[in-house]
C-alpha cells in the first residue's frame, strides 16, 4: 500500500479501474476524494488503483486489516460486466446504509438521468465506514456532497457516541 499513513484519523481511497490499473487511462477521481478526506482531517496516502473485480475486494480487505476509519472506492458501480465493486464490498459490511446511495443517485439525477443506473453500497465493516462511489468526477462530487454533512456523525455514532453532543 503506497503512501498509507496510520493515524487516529485514517482513510484510504481505492480506484476500481482496469484501464487505469493498466496505465491506458488516467484516473481523475481518486485525487478528488483524497483531497476531500485531507480537508476533513484524515491522513491518507495516494489512491490505490486496482483492476475491477476481485482486486477491489483484496484492496479493501487489506485496508480493513490495517484499521482505517474510512474507505472510499471509486469506480465499478455501473452495469458493464467488469463493474463489480458493490458485489466485492457488500459481503464485508456488517451494517448497510442504502439511504446514502439513494441520496447520491437523487443528487446526480439533477445533472444527468444516467445517475440512476449507478449501483453502490455504503455501510460499516466493523468500525470502518466503507462506500462505493461512481467512477466519474460528477458522481464522486455528488457522493462527497452527500457525505459532507453526515460523515462525522456516522463515525461518532459507530464509535458509541450519539452524534448529538458530548458523550
Per-chain topology:
Layout: E1 11-16, H1 18-21, H2 30-39, E2 48-50, H3 54-66, E3 70-74, H4 85-89, E4 95-96, H5 98-109, E5 122-125, E6 128-133, H6 137-147, H7 151-158
Parallel strand pairs: 1-2, 1-3, 3-6
Antiparallel strand pairs: 4-5, 5-6
Helix pairs in contact: 5-6
Describe the structure in your own words:
The protein is built from seven helices and six strands, in the order βααβαβαβαββαα. With 167 residues, it is of the alpha/beta class. Strands 2-1-3-6-5-4 form a six-stranded mixed beta sheet, sandwiched between helices. The model is unreliable at 1-7 (pLDDT under 50).
Question: Can you describe this structure in just a few lines?
Answer:
By secondary structure, this protein is an alpha/beta fold.
Features:
single chain, 167 residues, alpha/beta, 6-stranded mixed β-sheet, 7 helices, 6 strands, disordered N terminus
